[in-house]
Each structure stands twice: as structure tokens, then as C-alpha cells.
Design goal:
single chain; 156 residues; mainly beta; Jelly Rolls; eight-stranded mixed β-sheet; 2 helices; 10 strands; 13% helix; disordered N terminus
Amino acid sequence: MVSAVVIVAMVVRWLDDDGRAPAPLGLARSAAVAPFAGSEEVRAAVDDRCVRLVLADTPALRTAGLRGADDLGPYAGMLFVEDGDSRGAFTMSGVDRPLAITWFASDGSRLDSARMAPCPDRSEADCPLYRSDRAYRYALETPGGDPASSIGPCVS
């Protein structure tokens, strides 16, 4: 009987768990709009500017990233949110324009950054991997330009 209760509890948790990582830095989530409808977004202060960021907070969304996203619509970038500290690498496979990436710790402090270029000759085999020197909790990808120096809640 105890094992049946444990199994039921596990199934209920599985049905309730949407696989999303915890909300980043206490930021409020809301439904994203096109071209990322079905995802979620946050408003965050990036370098003291309040912007909208689409969240990559599930394994599937983190894997897809900005591949094939020619137009970010109202979003300044994509915030990759991990369940815990990560050392995962990023690739530009399937991304046609340069991106800046900044890795952040769980408290929002900046750890590392890089400028990422599209893969040479669109060849996945020759596509470099980009990774932080330290474990990170969040990674922010933004089109071209400079990597971010800070991230946190918007101040009204």
C-alpha cells in the first residue's frame, strides 16, 4: 500500500511538472508573443535598460535556442535558464547572424562572455563550441553587439 501511495505521488508530480527551470532572479514570467508564442518571457534590466527576454527554460527550448529565429520581434534576446549550475556549451549551428553571449551566476553576477560567429560555410562539423570558464546558472544571448555586463530586475 505504501508503494502505491509513492507511485501515485510520483505520477501527480510528473503531471504537474512542466519541466521548466525555476524563475530566474525572482523575475515575473508571462506568456511570450510572436515569434515565440508558446514560450514565456521576462522583463529584466540588462545593463540598466529594461528589456523583454524570451526564456529558454526547458531542455527542448535550451536545445533549440535561437536557431532559425531571423526576427526576435519585441525581444532583446534569449535568456537560457538552467535548473542548477551548468557547464554546458553553446554552438551557432543553425544561427545565421552573430550573437553575444554572457554567462551569469545564480545571483545574477557576470561570470564570462563571448562574441559568437555563425558557423563557417554553415558547416555543423566546423562549428565551434562556446563555453564559460566557470559553471553558470543563466546565459543571455543577444544579437551582435557587446555582451551584457549585468542582469537583474527592472527598477521602476
